[in-house]
Design a protein that fits this description.
It contains eleven helices and four strands; from the N terminus they run H-H-H-H-H-H-H-H-H-H-H-E-E-E-E. By secondary structure, it is mostly helical. A hairpin with a 5-residue loop joins strand 1 and strand 2. Helix 3 packs parallel to helix 5 and helix 5 runs antiparallel to helix 6.
Length: about 300
Amino acid sequence: MQRDLTQLFIVIAIVVTGFVAVTFLSSTLEHQRVPVPAAFADSDLALEGKRLNGYALGSEGLLADWYWMMSLQYMGKKMIEYGDKDIDLENLSSLNIRLLYPYLDNATDLDPKFYAAYSYGAAVLPAINREHAIALIEKGIANNPEQWRFYQYLGYIYWRSKNFDKAAETYEAGSKIAGASPFMLEMAAAMRSTGGSRDTARSMYGQMLAQAQDEQSKRNAQLRLFQLDANDELDAVNILLDRARTTTGHCPARLNEIYPQLKNSKLRGGRDFRIDSSNSLVDPTGVTYRFDEKKCRAAISLESKIPPPIN
C-alpha cells in the first residue's frame, strides 16, 4: 500500500513538474522571440493543456481554471493595449483577439461542465469570430444536454447574426428541456415576429445581465441596455428637434429649448429624461448628449462608453 502511494505521488510530481517546466519554457521563449506584425503576434497557444485530458490524474479541473484565468487576463490586456479609443462591441476584430477561443476551448475540454467559460464565450466571441462562438456553445450543449441555458446562448448568437429562423428553432429546442424558463418559448415567438426589435433586444440583454457570472459579461449586457435606453431617448429628442425646425424654420440653438416638450414624451418603463446640475441632457451613464446644430440632431457623445445606436 505504501509503495503504491509512493508511486502515485511520484507520478503526480512528474506531471506537475513537467507542466510547470513547459509553462516556464514557453514564457522564456515568448520573451525571446523575434518581433512580428501585430496581426500575427498571438496566432496560437504555446501550450495546449487539453492534450493532458485524461492523463492529469484528476488535475483537469485545476488546469481548466488556469486557462479560464488566462482568458480573462488576456482580454484585460487587449483592452488596456487598445487604450481610450472607442470599442465597437459588435466587432472586436480591431483588438486582434486571436487567443480567446483557444483559451476557452482548452478550459472546456479539460472541464466540459465549466459553465462560466461557456457563458463568457457566448457573450464575447460573437464579436470576434461567430463560428468559434457557435462551436464553443455547441460543445457545451453536447457535454451538458440537460442545461437549457446553453440553447439560450446559442439562440443569442444566431439572433446577433440576424438569423432569426435559426434562433427561433434553437430557443424552441431549449424550451423542451426539463426546467427550462418560459423565457425560451417567449423568445422563440419573438424571433418569428419581432426578431430585430428593441423590445426583443431589451429582453435578451436583461436576461443576460441577470444570469452573468463574470464582470465583463455583466458590463457588456449593462452597456447594451444603456444603449437601448439612449436610442429611445434620442428618437424622442430628434423628433422634437425636427418638429421645432419645421415650425420655426430654424433649429433650436440649444437642447434645453425643447425641455418643456420632453416632459410630455413617454419613454419605455415610465423612465424620465436625465438633466444634470448644469442643465444638460445626459445619457444613461451621465455623459452629456452631443448636439449638432447644423444637422439639428442629437447623438451619443464620443466621450460616452455607450456604443453607437442600434435599431
